[in-house]
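This section describes the prediction task in plain terms. A model, or a person checking by hand, is given the sequence of a single protein chain and must write out its three-dimensional structure as a string of tokens. No templates, partner chains or ligands are provided. The sample shown here is typical of the held-out split.
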Amino acid sequence: MRFLFFATGIAALSASSFAATLPTKRADVCNGKAELCGRSYGNITFVGAHDSFAFSKDPLALSRDQEVDIPSQLKLGVRMLQAQAHAKGGDLHFCHTSCTLFDGGKVVDYLKLVKTFLDQNPKEVLTLLFTNPENISLKDKWLPAFKDSGIADLAFVPPNLPVKRSDWPTLGDMIDKGKRVVVFMDANADTTQVDFILPEFDMIWETPFSVTDPKFPCKVDRITGPLSPEDHMHLINHSLNKNVLKTGVIISDRTDAEKTNGLDSINANVAGCEQFAAGKAPNFLLLDWVNVGNGFKAADKLNGF
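The expected answer:
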């Protein structure tokens, strides 16, 4: 018995030593494509869901911008989720302008849904773009939500800021290192408080939002920091709105969503922005009604598939 125990111990030790010498397995499929593993995060077009939390199938819910829920959006292929946060009853909620118009629930519950998807899909890189108009405390409110959901452990922290478009790691590297969630905030980000909540406009410029012109005239609408527009990634706000009875109140245009999210409309918007991006494709196509039209096909074409 003593000999058998000794032999088993040697075998276990040998197996452990052998395993320690094996090379780390590298991601072979990234965001559904083997070809994306070796491509920089800054050289890929991702489909984003504008106001991702504001989903409803009720056509009378005028504050909605989506009609499928977060898990469904992610299953479709959305890889940027955008949302706006407000304080409600001492908690952090995702709401549309105000929580009386559309309350998407607590941020931590939203993030837990996202974490479930990430756990079930370990070879996916996801971007979160959040708005913090009330300057709600990063340390006291935002960080606990990320920690409680488990997403903080997956958040990517750049070695230096700002990151040039050409300097982002590959999707494969991000997946291999387990840092596959990139978090941007459009205002009031402070990496000295929370190192993984990154200032969006230092690294991404956006086109105008709340657009009512179906031609989507392009310009660099929001940008900050020392990097040139060409060294920024860029996001196209490709969501069309209607001015209700010319009252100045705008709502998302569901009626024309099939055309807006069609290849012709998206490609024309992309082409109009190339002059500001050294001819490069957008990094993010931010859409309403992501389940309608050909947004994912447009992204595939821009990615060379």
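For orientation: Confidence is low (pLDDT under 50) at residues 1-23.
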